[in-house]
Amino acid sequence: MTGLPEPFRYEKIEAGGTVINTAVAGRGEPLLLLHGYPQTHLIWRHIAPALAGRYTVVATDLRGYGDSGKPAPDAASTVYAKRAMAGDQAEVMRRLGFDRFSVISHDRGARVGHRLALDHPDAVDRLTVLDIVPTRHALTHVTRTMAAAYFHWFFLAAGGGIPERLLGSEPEFWIRTVFGRLLAPGASIEPAVMAEYVRCFSDPATIAATCADYRAGATTDLADDDASAAAGQKVTCPVLVLWGERSFVGKEYEPVEAWREYATDVRGRALPAGHFLPEEVPGPVLEELRSFLP
Q: Within a domain: residue 135?
C-alpha cells in the first residue's frame, strides 16, 4: 500500500521553503490530519476515507517524513522546530483555500498540532491530540520510568551523528522494534503498510530529519513552550484528548489534567489500545471524532 485509496488525490504543495506531500478528498468542513513518528500519512488509512464522506480531509506527510521534502537540519534546531513544521501545515491549508480548519493529530504530529493552535489561533477551529501530553509537561516530569519507556526521545536527540549512523545501519530493525514496543499486545500493522513505513524511513535524509525533530523537541520546542507558558498563552479552541489505556501515556499520566494546564477547553478519554490509536482502534477513534467535530 503506497497511498490512500480513491477518491484521494495527491499533490506536492510548496510551503515553508520545502514541499509537503498532501492527500485530499471529500467535501465539507476542512480537517487536517497529522501523523507521528516513525510513520507517514498512511496512519490515517482507516480513518481518512470514512471522514471524507462528510468533511474535506487533508492528510500530509510532515516535513522530513514520508514523501515530503527533507531540508538539511541546522545547528540551532530551528528547521525541524514544531513552529516551522506548524507553519508548513498552515500554509498548505491556505494554499488549498482553507483559512480555518480542525486538526486531528497523533504523536509528533500532535506536537505540531499543539504549536499550530498556539501560533495560528484564528486558523484552528478544533484540535484533537492522540496519545501525548504536552512536550513541556513530559520534559519537566521526567522519571526513571519515563526515561526507560521513552528512551528514544533522548537517544534520537543526541548529537554528533550518533543516532543517524546507528539507525542508518539497520533502519528496518529500528522501525519494527519501535512498533513492537508501542503496539498493544496482539495488535499488528499490515505487511504492505509496514513495508511503506520501512521504505520511507530507510532514506538517510529521513533519518537525519527525524532525529532533528527530536533534537528540536528537547531544545527549541521546549524554549518556545516555556515562552508561551510564561506569557500565559493557552490553546483557546476546544481540545479532544484520546489515549491508549495500554500505552505509557495511559499508564503514567492524567492526560486531561495535563492538557488543562495548556488549553482552556479540554475533554477526553482512554481507548482500548496501545500508542497507535488510528491503526489499532479506528472505529472507537472515529466515534469520538464524530462526536467532537463540527
A: yes
Catalytic residue among 88, 107, 131, 221: 107
Any idea what the CATH number is for the domain that residue 193 is in? 3.40.50.1820
Q: Is residue 2 part of a domain?
A: no
| 107 has catalytic annotation | yes
Q: Which domain holds residue 86?
A: 9-292
Query: Tell me: the pLDDT tens digits for 53-86?
Result: 999 999 999 999 999 999 999 999 999 999 999 9
- The sign one gets for the Cα dihedral 23, 77, 106, 235 is negative
Which pLDDT score, from 0 to 100, does residue 126 have?
Answer: 98
Residue 1 has pLDDT above 90, yes or no: no
Task: Look at the chain and report how many structural domains it folds into.
Answer: 1
Give the per-residue pLDDT at 2: 80
Of the residues 106, 114, 120, 275, which is catalytic? 275
Percent of the chain with pLDDT over 70: 100
Residue 208 belongs to a domain: yes
Kindly state whether residue 4 falls inside one of the protein's structural domains: no
